[in-house]
Design brief:
mainly beta, 163 residues, globular
Length: 163
């Protein structure tokens, strides 16, 4: 019950297409003017989850200052926003490590086209308190960059809840 959207399936503004770090992805993605947009048609009706496969080597697991935080907006076939939430992608120590973001839930029908956009978010590096943070990814400017490799749409079968 997983639909995978790869780099050829979506529109990416910003970053650089790359095949480094073990898989195709958009490297150094996440400036304020960067966006990822796309659409899909669910294969089932019901509860779904939106998730990205990402890399974030901007710091160790023991710091959250450069945890990438983006904003996801999901629209139904009538272009109405059905959910918008923060997409969280913590640091993973190095850029060769890949993981999955948090899950963002939404309900959809299998006969409608769902669209999404990923936009700038707000992480701790935006706050004055961390202006002097100079760890990996830190410095004088905000740092909210991440590598994006794939988008997953997961369907949750309601029958599985009762088993």
């Amino acid at each position: 019950h997983i639909q995978n959207l790869y780099m050829d399936d979506i529109t990416v503004i910003g970053g650089t297409y790359s095949t480094t770090h073990g898989r195709p992805h958009y490297d150094n993605w996440g400036s304020a003017d960067h966006t990822i947009t796309g659409s899909f048609t669910p294969t089932h009706t019901g509860r779904h989850f939106f998730q990205v496969v990402y890399g974030n080597g901007s710091g160790g697991l023991d710091s959250g200052i450069t945890c990438a935080v983006k904003w996801v907006r999901i629209r139904n076939g009538s272009e109405q926003i059905i959910t918008e939430k923060a997409l969280i992608m913590p640091q993973l120590d190095d850029w060769d490590h890949w993981s999955e973001s948090n899950l963002i839930s939404f309900d959809a029908n299998n006969d409608e086209t769902i669209s999404f956009e990923i936009l700038e978010g707000l992480n701790m590096s935006f706050f004055d308190h961390y202006a002097k943070y100079n760890g990996n990814g830190g410095g004088n400017d905000m740092y909210n960059f991440v590598n994006i490799s794939e988008i997953k749409i997961l369907f949750r079968n309601s029958h599985e809840e009762n088993n």
